[in-house]
Structure formats: structure tokens, C-alpha cells
Design brief:
By secondary structure, this protein is an alpha/beta fold. It is built from 18 helices and six strands.
Length: 446
């Protein structure tokens, strides 16, 4: 089978991930080409959407190295395929009863509890051990105990290698300087780090209005360091069973320690580390576990850089922000004028444009976040496309479209600054929001 054909089908499946027929055809070609591990992933995605897909079940068995099961398929005569090609039972094997018929010996028809080899003859425990790094376990044991092959400590997390660096981040000069002093400088200068006794442990809290690039900045830090990157959201942690959320959080930190140097990004930290005085008892234990992991009681957090992001730092538990944890706070503000021009240029790069003055549009979009600017470009493109449909003549996106979009799309940061202003003015006893107060005063935001 030509690798070129398979590569073309891979690209087609990536473009149409929900086309299960196309994905099944690709998986069949991969099995035929001896690329079973790749076929397993595609078969698993089909079965996740259609658990009863007999063709995918047969393909999964073939990819795992077992015999292809018929899954109860019927032949031309309307009867089951049977154990042999002729439709009869194999020698020494009792015939299968019709639906609803009770076997003479139920124990003989069902594998013993805990038996690793099922009716298909496949040793699933051995298969899971062999292909566990390709397809994670999808079923739990009936007794609720951890899987004997892959326990909780082996839980897989998405560990990335970011290709983004700080050079790709527009503006944010003050933020970059702070990151250089806190993380990047000590990492690049081990002798200087030893001289000044600077640990490679660290925690930094990024806060500011939504859509201003906090997540992108965290990826850039990981790319600048050449470190692994793990992003955590609340759905990765919370679980309905008592103790499971705390274990998930511990497993995540263990994974980060095992991949050090690693940037561990805790997005929406206010949801995971909310003030314990405002939480129910079940969530308070999760916050306590997070505090324990940040402390690294066994001294195992060296090389783990914790970056957290939030739109509401005033809702984060005070204990998370004490020295040794998320003790450094950086305000991530909306992009300045040069940064806005760069963001606009980025989002227009693959669109038909003519006669656009980026500096003029940037000057008209004060307080717009990066997400607002992306939406502005989408809106301007819609204007040009609508006119092209109405007139029947294709035209480029022009300056009038951009300015009209700027009038329609309002900055989403205004609501955030309205709340932040009250915090900076009336709840800044410790000086934690001095930089925010200075920005509000400079911009005369009321």
C-alpha cells in the first residue's frame, strides 16, 4: 500500500474528523500496511462515537493482533456465521443457543471473574501493557480497584513542547522583564544562581482582563526555556468521588516533576483555588491539596515553574499567594498601540486586503484585547464578503470595513476594569494592586 495514499487520507481525516466512514477506510489501510498502532487510535475514535460499530470492532481486534470477530453478523441465509465457515459448530465446541435460550452450563459460557483472556481469545492485559502508550485504558475494573497494568500513578497527561517564544509575544515589555528576573535569568546562569542562592522553584500569578494573552504568554515561557509544558484546567482535576480530585491534582504535579524542567500552567486558578471561606468542605480539601503540592514538602518541585492565570485575583485564596507559592503577581494589560497593529496584521495576513492603515485602526481600538481585535477582523471580513455576495463582484477588505467593524465591536475589557477599579480603590490594603491602580490613574479610567 502506498504511503502517499495513506498520508493523503490522514490529511483528509484531520480536515473531516467526524467522517467515520473515511476514518474506518484509513484504519483498514493502516492495518493492511502493518501499521497497527496507528489504526488502533482511529478505531478507538470510531467506537467512542458508535460503540456498536461491528466493522470497527473487527478492525480493533485485527490491529491488536487477535482474530477478527464477526460481532454477530449474519450470512446470506439469515443465520449467524457460526464458528466455522460452513456454518456448523467447530469440533468439540457446543453449539450456540438462540437468543433468549439459557446455556446448559452458564459458568462454562462466561470467563471466570478476573480472567484476563476473554471469549475472543485475546489476552487483553498483555495487549494493554503493549499498547498502553498508544491507547489509554477505557474501562474500569468491576471491583473499583486500580487497573493492575496501569494504576493511578501512571495517569497520562498532555505534555507539550512549545515552539512559541517571547519574541512572538507583542508588547508586554514589563511582563517580559519580570519573567526574565524570576525564571529565565536564573535558568540560563547556573553559576550566578548558585552564588545568589536562587532556587529554580517558582510561582507566578498572571492576572488581567480576559483575552489579553495570558495563556499564550505561559506557552512562550515554556518555549523560551525549552521546557515541557502542561496545562491544567478545572476539568482535569474535579471528580465526583471523594478523594479523586485530590489524587488527580497530585498525579498532575508528579507528572510535572517527572518532566522537569517543566512549566505547569494553572488556568482559571480562581476556580480551583477559590477562597476557602466561601467554599463547601469538599472543595476546601482540593485547595488544601493544591497548597501542599505547591509547597513540595519532599523538596521535589525544583525545576517545576508554576504559572497561574486568572481574571479575578481577588477571589483567589490568600494562602495561595503567600511567599513560596504564587508569591509574584504580574498584571497583563490590553495590548498597546504598536502591539495592536501587530495583532491586526497577524489576523489579516491570509485575507484579501487593500488600502488598510493599520496604525489608524490601532489608534481607534484603545482598550481592545487581542481576542477583541481578532473578532474585529472577522467582522470586517464579513462586511466585504456580504458586499461581494450582493453585488456579484469580489472586493477586498478595505479601511472602511475595518473602521465600521471597530464601531460595532466594543472592547470586552470595559466590564473587567469597572470591577477592578473598585478593588484597586477600596480593597488594596496590602498594595497587591498598586500596578493596577497606577494604570487606572494613568488612563483616567473611572
Amino acid at each position: 500500500m502506498s504511503d502517499a495514499l495513506i498520508n493523503s487520507l490522514v490529511a483528509a481525516v484531520e480536515a473531516r474528523p467526524d467522517d467515520l466512514t473515511l476514518r474506518l477506510h484509513l484504519a483498514e489501510l493502516l492495518v493492511a500496511a502493518g501499521r497497527g498502532p496507528e489504526a488502533i487510535g482511529h478505531a478507538a475514535q470510531i467506537l467512542a462515537r458508535e460503540p456498536g460499530n461491528a466493522a470497527a470492532q473487527q478492525l480493533m481486534a485485527r490491529a491488536l493482533g487477535g482474530p477478527a470477530t464477526t460481532g454477530g453478523a449474519t450470512g446470506a441465509d439469515g443465520h449467524g456465521d457460526g464458528a466455522a465457515a460452513g456454518g456448523g459448530s467447530a469440533p468439540g465446541v457446543p453449539p450456540q443457543g438462540s437468543p433468549g435460550e439459557t446455556p446448559a452450563d452458564p459458568a462454562a459460557a462466561t470467563p471466570a471473574a478476573g480472567d484476563a483472556v476473554g471469549r475472543s481469545g485475546i489476552d487483553w492485559a498483555a495487549m494493554e501493557e503493549q499498547f498502553g502508550d498508544v491507547v489509554p485504558p477505557r474501562f474500569a475494573r468491576a471491583d473499583g480497584e486500580p487497573d493492575p497494568v496501569r494504576g493511578h500513578a501512571d495517569r497520562a497527561f498532555d505534555v507539550e513542547r512549545s515552539t512559541v517564544t517571547l519574541a512572538d509575544v507583542g508588547g508586554m515589555t514589563d511582563v517580559k522583564k519580570r519573567l526574565e528576573v524570576s525564571f529565565l535569568g536564573p535558568l540560563r546562569n547556573p553559576k550566578l544562581r548558585t552564588l545568589f542562592g536562587k532556587s529554580l522553584r517558582g510561582g507566578l500569578l498572571l492576572y488581567g482582563p480576559p483575552g489579553c494573552g495570558k495563556t499564550f504568554l505561559a506557552r512562550a515561557v515554556a518555549g523560551e526555556m525549552g521546557a515541557a509544558f502542561i496545562s491544567l484546567s478545572i476539568t482535569d482535576v474535579l471528580n465526583m468521588w471523594i478523594g479523586s480530585s485530590e489524587r488527580n491534582l497530585h498525579d498532575l504535579f508528579e507528572s510535572a516533576r517527572g518532566h522537569a524542567p517543566c512549566v505547569l500552567f494553572l488556568d482559571e486558578i480562581d476556580a480551583l483555588g477559590h477562597k476557602r471561606s466561601q467554599l463547601q468542605s469538599s472543595m476546601r480539601t482540593v485547595v488544601n491539596q493544591l497548597l501542599t503540592e505547591l509547597d513540595g514538602v519532599d523538596g521535589g518541585n525544583d525545576g517545576v515553574f508554576v504559572l497561574a492565570a486568572t481574571n479575578a485575583p481577588w477571589d483567589v485564596d490568600a494562602a495561595l499567594r503567600r511567599p513560596g507559592r504564587l508569591d509574584r503577581t504580574v498584571l497583563v494589560l490590553p495590548p498597546d498601540t504598536p502591539a495592536r497593529a501587530a495583532i491586526l496584521e497577524y489576523h489579516l495576513r491570509d485575507r484579501p486586503v487593500a488600502g488598510i492603515d493599520l496604525d489608524a485602526v490601532a489608534a481607534a481600538t484603545d482598550h481592545y484585547s487581542g481576542a477583541d481585535l481578532a473578532h474585529l477582523c472577522e467582522t470586517a471580513a464579513e462586511y466585504a464578503m456580504r458586499d461581494s455576495i450582493d453585488t456579484g463582484e469580489i472586493r477586498m477588505i478595505n479601511q472602511a470595513d475595518m473602521l465600521a467593524a471597530a464601531r460595532e465591536v466594543r472592547p470586552s475589557t470595559d466590564a473587567w476594569f469597572a470591577t477592578a477599579r473598585n478593588v484597586a480603590m477600596f480593597a488594596n490594603e496590602s498594595g497587591a494592586y498598586d500596578d493596577l491602580a497606577a494604570y487606572l490613574k494613568k488612563r483616567k479610567i473611572r
